[in-house]
Amino acid sequence: MAYKKLPLNSLVVNPANDRHGELENETAAIAQLFALREAHMRSLARDIVTKEEIFEPPLVFPEGEKFVVADGNRRTTCLKLLASPRRAPTVELQEFFHELRKEWKGAFPETIECRVENDRDRVDDILFRRHTGSQNGVGQSTWDDRMKNNFVIRTGKGTGVNIADEVEKQLKDAGLLPAKKIPRSNMSRLLSAEAIRNRIGFSVRKGKFEYLRTQDKVQQALSRIAKDLANREITLNDIWDTTNKLAYIDKLDEEGILPTVADAPAPLSPPKPTPPKPRPTPAPRPPSRTTLIPQVEYGVAWTGRLQRHRAIWEELQFKLDLSNHPNAVSVLFRVLLELAIDHHITQTKLTTVHPNDKLANKLLKVAENLHQAGKIDQKYLGVCKKAQNFDSLVSMDTLNRYVHSPQFAPSPDHLKALWDSLAELIVHCLNS
Predict the structure, then answer these.
(1) 5 and 113 Cβ atoms separated by less than 8 Å
(2) Cα(90)–Cα(81) distance, rounded to whole angstroms?
(3) Over 90: is that where the pLDDT of 207 sits?
(4) CA–CA separation, 329 vs 307, rounded Å?
(5) Which residue has the higher pLDDT, 292 or 21?
(6) Fewest CB atoms within 10 Å of the CB: 86, 189, 198, 425?
(7) In this structure, are residues 89 and 29 in contact, taking their beta carbons and an 8 Å threshold?
(8) Per-state percent for the chain, helix, strand, coil, to nearest 5
């Protein structure tokens, strides 16, 4: 640990701040801090100007010639905007910081004392022990459930299940442990997201390790990962955020290390019939589904480039009641589908798609690409092919009419059926 005076312009507001998840760059991170808590940000900026100090040095780690702010992003943002009001995300905020800067007495600081940590694991340990109260926006804002979840997904800390322990146990039982010691924190970090675990072929839900693909194929993949970590072929810097984790997983996929759909485990033999038992009292019915996207975990690895996709997804999963807002839901559903398909086309550099292709054609070509890659089976490919049929339940014509036709009224039940049919395709596209 060291405290150093660093130039303000050498600090980078963290695009992977756990308050909002991964974003594209510092500008997007600054905008998102105000989108989440503008009133708090204004209060903090006023407090900094009144006291002419920030009370607690930002926690930073080096990255090239810059220093990324791990903790203290709100304070650093306020200072950066006081130094350069034009960087504020709206005209109103630019005016606010311009007027506030006039109240600063004396010379404006060009350097800030920061706590510099080179060990990123230590950075996460520090973050894990902070954030105990917001103090009306002047102190550090308490993390809500989503923010805590972002931290858990990124780092693997506080999951309730020690993933490294589980993986080591599986490899030890199979005689596949590497000779060198596995960096356990790096293993937990890499395998912290369910979407990544699923691509490797296993799941950790409700505190239970479960194979989704044949055990030997999954163990071979985990053995390769363990060797890469143990031999320092992959280090903490290589798996710091979701984007880098996915790049490594994609590399394993290209090398044929990961299991595919063809490696699905054989179905269990049906149990022997048992004598009928007295009928129990029926359980109460679960609450009816009120949103287009059911409120379950789909295993999407939300990278910074999926910022808008995630915002639309969360509106459809948590905010928009399907019965009260069917028109808004239908339009956003259509937008999410096209953004997801275009994301897959861009990420995979799919050459069979032409610029003038309609959405139905793009969907079919993407589905065929996913089928060739072993991501979807022949049966689901057939479901996607029906999207070109006007009279089909899963029809792009229907979605287009929801957006463009003044006479076509969206049906909540039909929208649910459309989502249930296309959800698998959308998730695969987002995880491309």
Answers:
(1) yes
(2) 12
(3) no
(4) 19
(5) 292
(6) 86
(7) no
(8) 55, 10, 40
- As separate numbers, helices (DSSP H) first and strands (DSSP E) second, the chain gives 16, 7
Residues 95 and 71: their CA atoms lie apart, in Å, by 27
Structure tokens that stand for 125 in this block:
């340990």
Helix or strand (DSSP H, E) at 194: helix 194-200
CB atoms < 10 A from the CB of 199, how many? 23
Residues in the chain: 432
For 124-129, what is the mean pLDDT?
Answer: 82
Q: Which pLDDT tens digit goes with each residue over 258-273?
A: 998 788 887 656 666 6
Helix or strand or coil: residue 279?
A: coil
Output the six-digit token pair for 312: 């639309």
At residue 138, the pLDDT reads 46
Q: What is the mean pLDDT of residues 421-430?
A: 93
Residue 194 has pLDDT above 90, yes or no: no
Please list, residue by residue across 14-53, b when 16 or more beta carbons sit within 10 angstroms of its beta carbon and e when fewer do: bbbbbbbbbbeebebbbbbbbebbbebbbbbbbbbbeeee
CA distances from 122 to 116, 185, 217, 240 (A): 11, 11, 34, 13
Query: Is residue 54 a contact partner of residue 79, using CB atoms and an 8 Å limit?
Result: yes
Token representation of residue 239:
């798996």
Strand residue runs (E) in 72-219: 111-116, 202-205, 208-211
The letter for the amino acid at 201 is G
Q: What is the DSSP string of 226-260?
A: HHHHHTTSS-GGGGSSHHHHHHHHHHHHHTT-S--
User: Are the C-beta atoms of 163 and 156 separated by less than 8 Å?
Assistant: yes
Exposed/middle/buried for residue 218 (C-beta within 10 Å: 0-12, 13-18, 19+): buried
DSSP string, 292-359: SS-SS-------GGGHHHHHHHHIIIII--TTT-HHHHHHHHHHHHHHHHHHHHHHHT-TT--TT--H
Q: Mean pLDDT of all residues in the chain? A: 86
Interhelix angle 163-173/215-230, nearest 10 degrees: 110
